[in-house]
Known about the structure:
The complex is a heterodimer.
Chain A: E1 14-16, H1 27-32, H2 34-48, H3 57-77, H4 88-110, H5 117-122, H6 129-146, H7 148-156, H8 167-191, H9 194-209, H10 221-228, H11 231-244, H12 251-275, H13 279-282
Chain B: E1 6-20, H1 29-37, H2 40-49, E2 54-68, E3 72-76, H3 83-90, E4 98-103, E5 107-110, H4 123-133, H5 138-152, H6 167-179, E6 185-189, H7 197-212, E7 216-220, H8 224-230, E8 233-238, E9 241-247, H9 248-261, E10 275-283, E11 292-294, E12 301-309, E13 316-323, E14 328-333, E15 344-351, E16 360-369, E17 374-387
Parallel strand pairs in B: 3-7, 3-8, 5-6, 6-7, 11-17
Antiparallel strand pairs in B: 1-2, 1-4, 8-9, 10-12, 12-15, 13-14, 13-16, 16-17
Helix pairs in contact in B: 4-5, 4-6, 5-6, 6-7
Amino acid sequence: MEQSSSNTTSAPLLTIRPSSGWSAVNVRELIQYRDLLFVFALRDIKLRYRQTLLGPIWILLQPLMGAGVLSFIFGGIAHLKAPGTLPYFVYCFTGQLGFSIFSGIVSRVSTSLTGNAHLVAKVYFPRLLLPFSTVFAVMVDFCAAATILPVLMVMYHVVPGLGILLLPFWILLFVLLALGVGLLAAALMVSYRDVSALITVIMGFLPYVSAVGFDPSTLNYRMRMLVLVNPVAQILEGFRWSLLNTQMPTPKHILFTTLVSAGSFVLGTLLFRKMEKKFADVI
Amino acid sequence: MSSKDLAISVRGLSKSYTIVHQGGSVDDPSAASAADSSSALSQIRGSMFQRGSRETFWALRDVSFDVKKGDVVGIIGRNGAGKSTLLKTLSRITEPTEGSIELYGRVGSLLEVGTGFHPELTGRENIFLNGAILGMRRAEILAKFDEIVEFSGVAKFLDTPVKRYSSGMYVRLAFAVAAHLNPEILIVDEVLAVGDAEFQKKCLGKMQDVAAHGRTVLFVSHNLTAVTALCNRGIFMRGGTILCDGDVNLAINAYSDSFRSEAGTRTESQNKPYGFRSIRLINLDDPNEMEILTCQTPARYALEFKCVIPESRSVNVGFTLINDAEVCVASCSALDSVQRLPAGPVTMRIELPIPSMPSGNFRVEGAVWDSSREYDKSDGLLFFSVTNTMSILNLNGSKPRGATLILSPWQIETS
């Protein structure tokens, strides 16, 4: 209750008018509504494993099983090698871990509006809160799954280098890139539910063109280029370098991924803001 | 009025929607079913390129009004009059197309009870979730938590997921949260439609409290009794515009009159392939007399519907009698007494229980529907008055109350 009832001034507290075109993000309002952001985040985290038998154990099981499948296909059947002397399973697990930040945010953000259609149609709050709040749940999952990594590293005698200091940077790039893509998808999904199917298809093949389960340098030149123009693969390379001390990324590589991630975030947010006026009417 | 006392100022507010008409007629069931089964392709094409004409529909058209601080305003009107759209623009859920709204105070809007309640979460968790969604800060909710729990009366089940609540408990908890929202301007949409009589009373009481504390309330309802009891000002809307704005009784009269003025033969539905064509009240004994029913003589009156019935096994025609206070007095449908309705144009008659109807104004709502769709619906088919002097209760001057009269004589024995 910041706005006390002592509204004796003649200026209105709020004026509502039709807006047009692009509008910037109202940061002050987002801060004002921060409680709701955490409430949404907490709701998502709480609901995640309610009425499940194994509960939060799934957070650990999912990436372990995913990495198991990848290392079986690429390491076991295709006989690919991890860089240096790295055990294939650790290599896959790290890739899976990093990729899960991107895929988790994109899939949760993209359904954050349609999944809460009821709220969007009945209550006002800054619409950006819904997609932003999903990041928390993904990060909780990530942090929990990441606790397996030190165990694996000790088991397999893998030592990270100084690159580990840049780990938060790569995580941030993943979050920004994913938010940008997810926000655009979420806004489009309000009118076109087809986007949901499209996201599923893309998320199905993206791990393969992002080299989640194999070392991109084992590919031939043309395939490698195809993988390396993909920013997800690029950030993943940096992420793996931070943890496993693989090939160090070049400054050009760092600049490219930073620009693409920041650009994705800004563009996604602006497009979302432009489309959000119609959300309540069409959802 | 100085701007100091203003709570809301609305100027030239309009809101338009674009509606797309599909190529085929929506009202033609044979065309609809053909599209369902045989030509899925044409449907895909239709949805991709949005075939058909676009039309701009104005849900609100040039609405202007001011609300003073402490005013309790009832907004009345039929379905589709623009009431909910008005509340939605006032609560910032949707943006106006034209015009402006100035709000002089924190707005809390309650467009339904329990928005955002999650069935898997416990009562306690939902209080925080729902409170935050309605715009309360965490500290506020914490401060009022005990009060909310006490008001709701579900303290025992606070740590049970609300999906295991009875619907009554669910609504009570949801309303308890909403009732402790303390905005300077409260916007309420038809929340009285849910819950039992006791809950509705509690609801009204709480709103009276809010009004008594000098807060501004905007209240949409079809319950005219509640509007009269609660509001000091009424706004009657129709077709997206304000037709009457002033004393609450004035607005309610205008609302009732709107049904009277267009009773009788329906012309606007002639373009529908099925449904009502005309409705009239006939005196079964004297077919020339109609409209005002004076039951001094035991005349028998019937409603006569002329309709076109679609070819469907489950098609039904029904009507509801609504009195002045917007209370449903009776309802009746054809399949109550007939096995099946013949397709094509028909004339249907049903005798009304006029002798047991108290004096007053009534309107007839009607619909033609089957298990899958609604062919025609109107909430103002016919308006008529009953002046009932038949009632034995009237003889000693006491006016009967209630929606129906009890005509049977008393049996009294000394014991």
